[in-house]
Amino acid sequence: MINDHNMFKKLRIGTRESQLALWQAHHVQHLLMEQGVESEIINIKSEGDLDLVTPLYAMGVQGIFTRSLDLALLNNQIDLAVHSMKDVPVLLPKGIIEAAILERENPFDLFVPHPSVKISDLSSHNASDIASSSLRRKAQWLHRFPADRVEPIRGNVNTRLKKLAESNWWGAIFAAAGLQRIGLRPANAIELEWMIPAPAQGAILVVCREEDENIISDCRKLHHEQTAFCIKIERDFLSTLLGGCSTPIGALAEIEGENIFFRGNLLDPAGENEFVIEKRISVELGAALGISAANELLRDGGNELIEKKQHA
Predict the structure, then answer these.
(1) CA gap 166, 115 in Å, rounded
(2) Alpha helices of the chain — where are they, by DSSP H?
(3) For labelling alongside 239, which of 40, 63, 86, 192 has CA 20 to 30 A away?
(4) Alpha-carbon span 235 to 249, nearest angstrom
(5) Residue 282: phi, psi to the nearest 5?
(6) pLDDT tens for each residue of 268-298
(7) Cα diameter, the chain
(8) Which among 49, 70, 79, 87 is annotated as catalytic?
């Protein structure tokens, strides 16, 4: 049955126009429909989609993919916005609140080889050129493979796969969830479990205006508490380290039975120095884990790295 307060009005779901963003918006639309809530999709262009040349870390990227949707929400052009949660700044704009965090899919990064690279070639790693749009991925890759060169690559998932195919690169790094959602994960892609993902990678966030109680109530039915718990830890870690997209920071919290296993790292952009922390504690004691892990990392030398970056 369709909710009374939505009987005469479809909820307007705002999204970016890429295939992946549209998949995420339609996924939310489908979940809302299962709750008896009708909606329509409204496409909004983002600054991050308009400039496909400048590397993300040179754009001061925080909020670059969410700002246009946030403005559309505050201007009442849409009723809710759907974001890849790793793109969302830790502090939301005034007047906008988290309404639902969906159950997370694969949080890891994937190495996608160039189509000409054979599976047998992947076991021997010689100095290579690879591509990534992320400073975090670049820093972690160079820390592990310092002889490689990492080139910037921009555009949506489809554009980046096309650029890879037309390039001389050995491969490129993508978020696994993005490729899986739109059915484009190549058979020869390699999951990089050693690479600590971006905080909240693989999760989808729905935001609403804070005064729209009925809409918030509809969206809360889609909320996944365990995912939200893990992501709060990861984003606490990020914000305690004062990190934005211009700082290579990785964080992943995973619930394993009664425990929560957390991995976090902080690197310099060249990947020369890495500070890593791992913690396993009980879920009931885990609420402040992101903050305590970040503070421990800062005490163990991370502070010097951040200060050096701020002075630079």
Answers:
(1) 9
(2) 19-34, 47-50, 67-74, 135-144, 157-165, 176-181, 213-220, 225-240, 289-297, 303-311
(3) 192
(4) 10
(5) -70, 150
(6) 999 999 999 999 999 999 999 999 999 999 9
(7) 63
(8) 87
Spatial contact of 85 and 101, defined as CB atoms under 8 Å apart:
yes
Query: How would you list the strands of the sheet with 249-256, edge to edge?
Result: 249-256, 259-267, 274-282
Q: In angstroms, rounded to a whole number, what is the distance separating the alpha carbons of residues 285 and 281? A: 7
pTM: 0.89
d(CA 193, CA 238): 20
CB 132 within 8 A of CB 150: yes
Q: Which of 110, 116, 225, 103 is nearest to 170 (CA)?
A: 116
- What token pair was written down for 290? 């992101």
- CA-closest candidate to residue 217, choices 66, 80, 42: 80
